[in-house]
Each structure stands twice: as C-alpha cells, then as structure tokens.
Amino acid sequence: MEQNEESHRVPDRITLGGPADIVAAVPYILGYHPSDSLVVLGLRDDPPRLNTAFCRESAPADTDADHTAAAESIAETLRGDECAAALVVGYGPESDVAPQVRAVRGAADREGVPVREALRVADGRYWSYVCESAECCPPEGVGYDPSASTVAATAVANGLSAWPSLSSLRDHLAPVGGTRRARMRAATRTAEERGADLLGDRPPRGRDAYGPRFRAEGVRAVREAVAAVNRDAPPQDPGRLAWLGVVLGCIRVRDEAWTLIGRESAEAHQRLWREVLRHVEPAYRPAPGSLLAVSAWARQDAALADAALERVYEVDPDYSMAVLVHRALRAGVPWQGYPPESLQAVWPLESP
What is the top-level taxon of the source organism (predicted)? Predict the structure, then answer.
C-alpha cells in the first residue's frame, strides 16, 4: 500500500447528479474529508455506477514528473477496471491542483477513459475545469454546503460516515509516547520473558509452532480482554497490553481473536485492538492492526480499516492477514464473518 496514493472501493448507494453532488459525495466515498489531495472516481456504464476511486495526497516537493507518473498509473487502473469515464476533484490552491488535473485528464484520455467532470475545491467553493459557462460556473466559483446535500443525507442514512480529515484518522491510531512508551518497553521485555518460560527449551520454529501451553495462555488473555472491553473496561495496564501483543504473535491465538469479531461485537473489538495497536512495540503491531482492520470492516468504516493496515505495513508489508483484508476491502467484499467464504478458496487460512 503506497502512502500517498490509495484506491478505494466505492459504495453503490450514492447517486451523483452534478458538481455539488460530486463534492458532497467524495468524503463518504473515501471515508474522510480530503484536503490537499487529488481524488479520481472511475465510472462504469453497464450498469451505470461508480466503480473505484483514487486519492493522492499532494506534497510540496511534487514535480511535473511526479504528477505524470501518478496520472499514468491511475489511468491504467481505470482502463484495467473497465471504467467508461472518470470524475476528478482536486482540493487546494489552483497552483497545486491545476497541474495534477491536467496530467490526469491527459493520461485518462490516452487510455480511452474520458474525464466527464474536473473540479477544484477550496474554502467552501468549487470551480469546474470542464464547464465554460459563466452562468453555472462563474470565475469566483460556486459556494456549496455539503451538510445540506441530499447526497450527504443519503450516505448517512445508509450507514456511511466520514472522518474530519485523513490526519485525524491517522492521529486516532498514533502510537503512545513519552512515559507511557517507556513503560511499554519495560512491560514488553517482561512479557517476552513470560512467553519464553511457557515455551521452555522448545522455541517456536516458524510463526505458529508455539505449543499448547502458550496457545492456551494466549487464548485466555484474548478472551479476558474481550470480556473486559464488553464491560466498558478495556485493558490499560502496560503489562496486559504487552502480553496481548506477544501472544498474538501465535497465529492460532490471533485467529481465535478474529473468530470473536461479529457485527454486534465489532465496536468493542475496535476499541480493544486500537488500544493494543497504539501501545505495543512496533514488532507486535501486525496482529492487532489487522484485527482492528477487520473490526472496522465489519462496521463499514473502510477508511479506519485502511489506516490500521497502513500501520501494519509500516512494520510488515507482507503480513498475510493484512494482505487478505486489504484484498477484500479493495474488491468490495461485504462483511460476512470469519473469514469471507469467497476469499477462503483463493487465500487459505494459515495452518497451525
């Protein structure tokens, strides 16, 4: 997963009737309100619907070559996804947005995917790069109130939500620091020693050869943590958090936690695994980050799931559970429990 360019599966419940609807819909398509970004929506004709979306974060150091490379990658994907047309929305000042829009329009045109609308959004107004009529698209832009849009109301009614910004989403999962981090380092060393004692003279060969004693203690720790969060008392003690991080290194223990996530319990699991993810040492992030992504997926919060997977990939880009969940999100697979049957055939569970 690249950090500044990500594809998003687009919900099928939003109907776009014009520029104002497009601007109102984007936050619910991405799951957050974008800023200093370029958003590209791919459309199919048969049946008429939004198919996929890209959001590329702008950076001050971006060059024309960067814009061209990104545009070509997006255009190739639009063609590969059999999109018949595209919509482009840039957020930020004209000097930043215009070169990116030009690059995407040119690349998409070369791939045979025409851009039907291209907009710039800033300071509560939008401008069209396609419409030349001063009556509907005046030089000073068109003011809009996304909260008053029927698109926003429809999105919310269908269970969609939007974080205030991408940075707020990332801050929500930021690792703890300061004294708390120092206590976690010490607690992790203690937890690792405890795990080593359970393994005895037989250290694991491979990722899940932990033995029955270790697995039993790990499953017990997971179930106790889930029970605690269901009582609205998530674990906060560094020792318990560090121990959860260590035992989740056992695939069987992690999968036990996965099986406990359901639609009704997903909110509690989301709180639990966020707490663990933010506290554990980096090496132990992949399992709780992936469990958090599953919990968010069950609650239709793809943006949070993506952000959790981003934390995982910072440590282990090949962590199999994260890759599985990422594929499901990109394919638009609806939450079906553990794990989606449609994915089991192509991605078998790891053996104990």
Answer: Bacteria
- Rounded CA gap, 62 and 136, in Å? 32
Say if residues 274 and 172 touch (Cβ distance below 8 Å): yes
Residue 148: CB atoms within 10 A of its CB come to 10
Write out the DSSP string of 197-218: HHHTT---SSSS--HHHHHHHH
Structural domains in the chain, CATH included, are 5-163 (3.40.140.10), 173-344 (no CATH)
Of 117, 42, 48, give the one whose Cα is nearest residue 75.
42
Distance CA 145, CA 210 (A): 56
Q: Is there a contact between 250 and 218 (Cβ–Cβ < 8 Å)? A: yes
How far apart, in whole angstroms, are the C-alpha atoms of residue 23 and residue 39?
10
- Cα atoms in the 13 Å half-sphere on the side-chain side of 322: 23
Query: For residues 146 and 29, what is the distance between their CA atoms, to the nearest angstrom?
Result: 14
What's the residue count for the chain? 352
- Extract the tokens encoding 64: 């024309």
Q: What single letter denotes the amino acid at residue 169?
A: L
**Best CA proximity match to 287, nearest among 348, 337, 218:** 218
pTM for the whole thing?
Answer: 0.82
CA distances from 82 to 7, 51, 329 (A): 15, 9, 19
- In this structure, what token pair is assigned to residue 159? 């269970």
For the segment 254-288, what is each residue's pLDDT rounded down to a tens digit?
999 999 999 899 999 999 999 999 999 999 999 99
> CA 218, CA 204: separation in Å to the nearest integer?
15
Residues 52 and 81: beta-carbon distance below 8 Å: yes
Q: What average pLDDT does the chain have?
A: 87
Containing 259, the helix (H) or strand (E) segment is helix 251-259
Alpha helices in 138-210, H assignment, sequence order: 150-157, 166-172, 178-199
